[in-house]
Design brief:
The strands form two sheets. The chain has a five-stranded antiparallel beta sheet with strand order 3-2-1-4-5. It has a two-stranded antiparallel ribbon with strand order 6-7. By secondary structure, it is α+β, with helices and mostly antiparallel strands. It is built from two helices and seven strands.
Length: 143
Amino acid sequence: MQWNYNAEDYKEMEFKPIAPGKYRVRIETVEETTSRTNKPMLKITLAVSGESSRIWYYLLLDSSTPQFIQWTNNKLGRIYDSFDIPAGSMNTSEWEGKVGGALIDNETDNNGTLRARLKYFLKREEVLTLPFWNEGKDDVVPF
């Protein structure tokens, strides 16, 4: 393969973590995948209001014990409530485009890099009190 590389085109990109706080978030994609322990898992890609960065949420669908089933149902319930998705819906393609809310914090990863981390999804009542959706430009959309 040939490519005419121009080193002057290369610009070092600086990624700033999303500031801690409560945000509206929109589900962009939901990928059904498998965890390292070979359990079913959902990888959810979220856009964050007012930010150009994305954040990922991984939900392990673990049915190995009653406690894990309860934990998974609790996590799913938070998603259903926050994004106004019908309870019990596992048609994840219908989740895409839905807007909910999340508390985002920062943590240092194993490499010493500060990264945004989704702590939990907000209850629907709290989502409705957040500022309207902002694509990160000057436009504001009332979701």
